[in-house]
Amino acid sequence: MIETESLLPDHAGLARAAEILRAAGLVAFPTETVYGLGGDARSDLAVARIFEAKARPRFNPLIVHVPDLAAAEEFALFDAQARAVAAAFWPGPLTLVLPLRAGSGLSPYVTAELDTVAIRLPAHPVAQALLRAFGGPLAAPSANPSGRISPTRAQHVRDGLSGRIAAVLDGGACAVGVESTILGLAGAPALLRAGGVTREDLEALLGRLPIGGNAQSPTAPGQMASHYAPNAAVRLNAAPDPATVFIGFGAGAADLNLSPRGDLVEAAANLFHLLREADVLAQNGQSIAIAPIPERGLGLAINDRLRRAAAPRG
Questions:
Q1: Which of 29, 49, 58, 157 is deepest in the core (most CB within 10 A)?
Q2: What is the pTM of this model?
Q3: Residue 207's CB: how many other CB atoms inside 10 A?
């Protein structure tokens, strides 16, 4: 066990976080989607520590976070289509899976020794400030124990990883609340994970996108069948039931409500926090029941997370 420092996103806090990262330590930091667990993406030791802290399977690749397109091109090969997507959606909640540039210097643990790399340019000002203070690429999966509910507040990180990581950089609540969309561009475009950029917005630029990904041999994060799981069992497309903790959507009685006005943006921002609250409320074997969520816009990402949260656990 180590003492996990709590840092503010001021000059002193950013300098301390960068110091830890340069020593192959781990720092959790906010992005617009969820909190990431950052480590130097060029360091085998730092990346191995990420897998150890999260108890994450080594075959599950990580996302590399960079401050700008020029930095991204140091690690991945961009064609005209990839540059067009980056121009439209970066910085923001979109990860691109692209061919890995030869001699990139990234740890092979980051890519799970694949010939592709998942890369993102986050929009959150604290994430940007940390990347620039550190001066290098950060491998950063969600800052939670593997398979459990993703963190959207600094306290969520501390609840799951205190004593296992060096520091938490507290930037408040995350605005988007679900992880980045992952778009495969190493071949024909494919949606590998629904997330903060909607499928509809991507298809307006790229045309119809097939769903890709493989839970047995992941080519990008977020493809494991069971993921984002609370301790209590989860039931989907449910109605209120006294034997459950009911999470509603839209008008109507509920123990907790993702968005009383039926707003998918608000629901996404609240999703992981309310799953944690419901898990605390669930007593004596109660399950968590969740109202139907429309399968459109950010609802695609919400339902993806909920299906994985409800999946049988190994």
A1: 29
A2: 0.92
A3: 8
